[in-house]
């Protein structure tokens, strides 16, 4: 028998892992930003030296290459940090759903309301604390529209009959 808290424990574990990754990459972000600023300062000093002391402009090459390398590395760090932040939000929202504190955290689907629909109001398909808000993890409008369509469309009798036959056997 699977323990009921297994999904919640797994979500907490994944949330903690992503939180640690976010913190690590946030720390690295600050260090790389400082390093880029320092290299920029060196480049300005080298440019001033080349301009006022009539030194070779080749002195600018090393800081420029270093700055470019740091910029590429920094961009990768920022992207990984943002992925960790998105994963943290996903698992936090999942925990809220598991712990039944999801109401008010997601999209309500109000745009898909149709007051003429047969069972929409009875089942609270759309609106605050609705079935749509509980189920939706859609990231796009077309994803939300697809879920709304599924919720508004009743299963055909042939599907229901097949499901009943499978349950009896």
Look at the structure and give the mean pLDDT.
86
Order of helices and strands: HHHHH
Cα(first) to Cα(last) distance is: 24 Å
Q: Label the overall shape.
A: elongated
Strand content: under 5%
* Quaternary form: single chain
Sheet with the most strands, sense and barrel status: none
The residue ranges in which pLDDT falls below 50 over 5 or more consecutive positions are none
Q: State the helicity in percent bands.
A: 55-70%
What is the gyration radius calculated from CA atoms?
A: 27 Å
> Number of DSSP strands?
0
| Structural classification | mainly alpha
Q: Compute the number of structural domains.
A: 2
Tally of helical runs = 5
Can you give a write-up of this model?
This protein is mostly helical. The chain has two domains: 93 residues; 59 residues, no CATH class. Helices cover 67% and strands 0% of the residues. The protein is built from five helices and no strands. The longest helix has 47 residues. The mean pLDDT is 86.
Q: What secondary-structure arrangement, pairings included, does this model have?
A:
Blueprint: H1 6-52, H2 61-98, H3 131-135, H4 141-152, H5 157-168
Helix pairs in contact: 1-2
Task: For the structure shown, list the relevant keywords.
5 helices; 169 residues; single chain; mainly alpha; 67% helix
Question: Summed up, what is this model?
Answer:
The protein is mostly helical.
